[in-house]
Amino acid sequence: MSEILLLVEAKDGILDKKTLELMRGAKGLGSQLGVEANAVVVGSQTAQLAESAASFGLDKVYRLEHPLLEGFNADAWVGGLEWLCGQVKPGIFLMSHSFVGKEVGPRLACRLNTGLTTDCLNLRVDPEDGLLVRTKPIYGGNAIATVKCEGVPQMVTVRKNAFEPIDEAQTRSAIVDMAPGIAESSIRVKTIQTVEQEVVELDKANVVISGGRGIEAKEDFEMLEALAAALSGSHGNVMVGCSRPVVDKCWMSSDRQVGLTGTIISPDAYIAVGISGAIQHLVGMIRSKKIVAINTDPGCNMFKVADYGVVGDYRDIVPALVKKLEER
Ligand SMILES: Cc1cc2nc3c(=O)[nH]c(=O)nc-3n(C[C@H](O)[C@H](O)[C@H](O)COP(=O)(O)OP(=O)(O)OC[C@H]3O[C@@H](n4cnc5c(N)ncnc54)[C@H](O)[C@@H]3O)c2cc1C
Predict the structure, then answer these.
(1) In whole angstroms, how far apart are CA 225 and each of 71, 211, 325?
(2) Ligand 1 mean position to 311 CA, how many Å?
(3) 283 C-alpha to center of ligand 1: Å?
(4) Which stretches of the chain score pLDDT less than 50?
(5) Tell me, what CATH number does 108's domain have?
(6) Which of 261, 271, 283, 304 for mutating ligand 1's site (highest number of atoms within 8 Å of CB)?
(7) Together in a domain, 148 and 297
(8) How far apart are CA 240 and CA 45, in angstroms?
(9) 277 CA to middle of ligand 1, Å?
(10) Residues 139-198: tens digit of each pLDDT
């Protein structure tokens, strides 16, 4: 087997924690297989980032440098990484299960005619055949699959916290400059505009109040905001989330969506307002310590998992709750 390669991600020149976790994973696999564990930094002015990536004791850090690789343009990154894989022929290619990994991974695997296992929780080497054994959640997290793939490179995206972040090392990695040829004509996205928006970290909230399709109008989310404000004095960080239909209607940004394709949370309390309790939603909040459901349908699934349930119209229940809390 040839080397293990991992894709470095960074924000504002600072290495992403998930990259530091991948580095530990790559080093462990590298020593089991007796091969180099290397990293690739992609961009247009990567000298400083490559220097930071070199301080964690991997064997090499490739600087994949090209003006078209500036920022994150998936077309350009996939082209550049395809070129690099052609040069260094990694046996294993690790990416974070991040926005970048999810965008680059499947396209790169297709170009390299190999498989990809996404959202891995753990990686190890099978001593019998030297293949990478990956575990990943399936059926909304209700089962864990063990997967092996024969394609080369063996490609995976890895969920955050799968490994401990790596510590700085005494030895520095060798930095290797690589200049890929990328044709401008291969890039379909010509400009990328960054939209500044508030960072929502639902998984850091003590209490999450989510609204679903049962909420009649976008303005009615103000009732949930009022409930959040009334609870925040006594319950810490209280945030408003939602189910997927609310995001589909563009009433809320996707970082507020709870569930399988949203954020998985385990707050002290979860209040589901007008949410039926579909499995894809439940997997995102079932580990909440207390679940409260407000729903007009007494037979809805959410009541089956709720600790407390109120059968009724949210337009009556939520303002009444706010009033009660404000009277305390
Ligand atoms: C691959 C895949 C991934 C998915 N990922 C997610 C995900 O991450 N998150 C997610 O949420 N969904 C996800 N979904 C969608 C999911 O299957 C459900 O369609 C969705 O969760 C339903 O949202 P809901 O409960 O808000 O709507 P509904 O199922 O339509 O429920 C609305 C509820 O509101 C109640 N209601 C109506 N009026 C009122 C009122 N006035 N007062 C109180 N209650 C009222 C109704 O009784 C009903 O129970 C996914 C689906 C797929 C296929």
Answers:
(1) 35, 10, 13
(2) 17
(3) 13
(4) none
(5) 3.40.50.620
(6) 261
(7) no
(8) 39
(9) 6
(10) 877 789 999 998 999 999 999 889 999 999 999 999 999 999 888 888 888 887 877 878
State how many domains the chain has: 2
Pocket-testing residue among 283, 291, 295, 321, ligand 1, by greatest number of atoms within 8 A of Cβ: 295
H or E element, residue 326: helix 314-327
Q: Are residues 65 and 15 in the same domain?
A: yes
Same domain, 232 and 127: no
For the stretch 52-89, pLDDT in tens is 999 999 999 999 999 999 989 999 999 999 999 999 99
Determine the structural domain holding residue 318 and report its residue range: 202-327
192 part of a folded domain: no
Longest CA pairwise span in the chain (Å):
69
Q: Separation of 112 CA from ligand 1 center, angstroms?
A: 38
| Residues, the chain | 328
What is the predicted pLDDT for the residue at 128?
A: 92
Residues having CB within 6 Å of any atom of ligand 1: 212-214, 243-245, 257-262, 274-276, 278, 280-281, 284, 294-297, 300, 313-314
Q: How far apart are CA 234 and CA 72, in angstroms?
A: 42
